[in-house]
Design goal:
alpha+beta
Length: 404
């Protein structure tokens, strides 16, 4: 591959490498890359760049072999995510190289097939080498002199490095946008998403704190991307014909932003599940709080089932901390029905209890008694600055003048 990324958009569909995806699907998958998994990828990428620099200085074959091994491992890590399985699906350069290195170690006598010998003879001649033991075997994958081969290989190193940088810039920025901006919208619609994104891009305070840029990171989220755009009539994977937007770029950021912005303009949203904390795609304007994945606290239920009040009543029989949470909800509901607190205060109080429950379920050092004390009504209202209005009980007192 030459590093170009070609993709098509039509309707609410993003098509990459012949595979159609619903708008936002690629983004949903990539932003669920955990910080720990990203650290693994980043560390491998840094190792690759270091080895490439060392090989470029001394052309040491042992360094080359280490470099290719690291590149193969980095490719494997990236392919755990959908977008890279599409971008790298025909990029098996490193795996093939590893196979050759393992099969044809100069220190181990091997039997070469006629096809092998014909290929290797041509390559040896092009490189001015006399025997296989004089040639770094991994370079056999690309014909030409040593300089051409290294430039070809190093272009892959550079491309993978840019992918890793773009992952951080895109993921961190879009997560901030989702968590701090979109999650607080009262209305979910393409118009409200557009307004939110406009504020996100243009408010200096948000730009400095929430958008990855050279002032707070070595990576940078670009508000504008350069790529070629054409309108082309073409046959779709399902046989239909449509006028598509053809995008050509060398930037992973450009691809991912096209996917995410298409989702927003289609009225789709990506939310973060309050229970498992994974991001999930919502194709409607509902204020969804939970995903449909398996709940980490009760795998027999989905997060959505676990998050529902009625389902938690059932779970309360077996999970003491959930039972305490249900009781706290009942107290708050009664206060709201009596008019002692407002509907908005009721919502805030219940959100606080939910957050405390998820924390208590994840941490074994929080006992049931400690959790119960932390969500006592007096404590909740104090923390949230909620004032409970006392309501008179019983029959109202008579008012009026003296009896005649």
């Amino acid at each position: 591959m030459d590093g170009r990324i070609i993709f098509y958009t039509y309707g609410t569909t993003m098509e990459l490498n012949g595979h159609p995806f619903s708008a936002g699907e690629l983004t949903e998958n990539l932003i669920n890359l955990t910080p720990d998994d990203y650290d693994v990828i980043r560390t491998k990428a840094e190792r690759v760049i270091d080895l490439a620099g060392r090989y470029n200085r001394n052309w040491d074959v042992s360094v080359w072999r280490k470099l290719n091994s690291e590149m193969s491992a980095l490719s494997t890590e990236l392919k755990k995510y959908t977008v890279f399985r599409m971008l790298l699906d025909d990029d098996d350069l490193f795996a093939k190289t590893e196979e050759l290195l393992n099969r044809y170690d100069p220190a181990t006598p091997v039997e070469f097939t006629e096809q092998d010998m014909e290929l290797y003879s041509q390559l040896l001649e092009a490189d001015g080498k006399e025997s296989l033991s004089d040639l770094p075997l991994s370079l056999l994958l690309y014909p030409g002199d040593m300089t051409d081969k290294w430039e070809f290989y190093f272009s892959h190193v550079t491309r993978y490095g840019s992918y890793v940088t773009d992952i951080y810039a895109f993921n961190q920025t879009i997560r901030n946008f989702i968590n701090f901006i979109l999650s607080r919208l009262e209305t979910n619609s393409p118009e409200s998403y557009a307004q939110a994104l406009y504020n996100f891009y243009n408010d200096p305070r948000l730009v400095d704190k929430l958008i990855v840029n050279p002032f707070n990171s070595t990576a940078s989220y670009n508000k504008h991307d350069e790529y070629m755009l054409s309108y082309v009539p073409r046959e779709l994977p399902d046989g239909r014909v449509a006028i598509c937007q053809e995008h050509v770029t060398d930037s992973l950021q450009a691809l991912m932003k096209a996917d995410y912005m298409l989702a927003l303009t289609s009225g789709y949203n990506i939310r973060r599940c309050l229970i498992c904390h994974r991001y999930f795609l919502v194709k409607s304007g509902v204020h969804a709080l939970y995903c449909e994945g398996a709940c980490p606290h009760a795998p027999q239920y989905t997060c959505r089932q676990f998050g529902s009040y009625e389902r938690q009543k059932e779970l309360a029989r077996d999970i003491p901390k959930v039972r305490v949470k249900v009781t706290a909800f009942e107290r708050i509901t009664k206060d709201a029905k009596r008019g002692a607190i407002s509907k908005e205060d009721e919502r805030r109080a219940k959100d606080y209890v939910r957050d405390k429950l998820y924390e208590a379920l994840r941490r074994t050092d929080i006992s049931v008694d400690d959790f119960e004390a932390s969500i006592a009504s007096e404590r909740i209202y104090s923390v949230l600055n909620i004032t409970r209005t006392a309501k008179p009980r019983g029959r109202p007192k008579k008012t009026g003048g003296e009896a005649v």
